[in-house]
Amino acid sequence: MRLMVCSILMSLASLSWALLLLFIIMYTFSIVFMQGAIMYLQDPTSSREADSIRDGVVLWYGSVFETMYTLLASIVGGADWMDVVRPLEKISMVYRLLFSFYIVFVVIGVLNVLTGIFVERACEMSGLDRDLVIQTQLKRDETFLTEMTRIFQEADADGSGTVTWEEFKGYLENDRVKAYFTAQQLDAFDARTLFDILNDGNGDEMNIQSFIVGCQRLKGLAKGVDLVAVLQETRLLNRKVKAIMRLLDGGAPACVATLETCRLPSKTSGAGVFGDVG
């Protein structure tokens, strides 16, 4: 109820412009139909059916207001448009085609645009209202929690309250289960990887808390907090690598000198040995 009232209030401006467009369209077609009927009735060479046509024109097209009211009733179900167009089609088939075009254009085009405007405003309102957003999210979380609990109970074949790797593997061998996981935005292609991620690497048994928490974190695309955490860890590793590289660059000459110092006595000692041997 609250959403409907707020949506109507927010869509009043757009709805007013749409109704104005509908009014202009109805007024234009009313002038065309009335002008054609009046010109036919004023023509002295009109057919003998002029009396019957006059009765229909007076009934449906007596004035601009009556004509617009008739056109409105034709598109909202207040009158059968086949009965409404009958006096005009006796004048000319062109008016029949024109009236058919009016019905198709307004019903399929204009009225659907009005419905789309209202639905769009309702969606925007549901996204802006804090209470509605919270209520919708809580309902989604509750539904997801119920579904994941049911899946865990189905996977727990022995009813021990925990799911082992073998039970989880056997449960995911069912194609319908894989399809359901995919529908819940959970990638079940690699069962072992999924099990390790859900269980956080804590052995080959998983309790219901680990399963539900893991499914909530894995559901859908990467969340903003996950991306920020990865970015921070990457920056931290980058700083550590740069620090290590600076230490290596600063200690490189000393290391080279040490190696040279160690190498020279070796050569001298080697020569002396060979000399002694010689």
From TrEMBL:
Pfam family name, one: Ion_trans
Residue ranges of every copy of the EF-hand domain listed in the record: 143-178
Record field: transmembrane: 12-38, 58-82, 94-119
GO molecular function annotation: calcium ion binding; monoatomic ion channel activity
Record-level GO cellular component terms: membrane
Gene3D superfamilies the UniProt entry points to: 1.10.287.70, EF-hand
Keywords associated with the record: Calcium, Membrane, Transmembrane, Transmembrane helix
Keyword Transmembrane: yes
Localisation: Membrane
Membrane-topology descriptor: Multi-pass membrane protein
Signal peptide (residue range): none
Entry protein name: EF-hand domain-containing protein
Organism: Pyrodinium bahamense
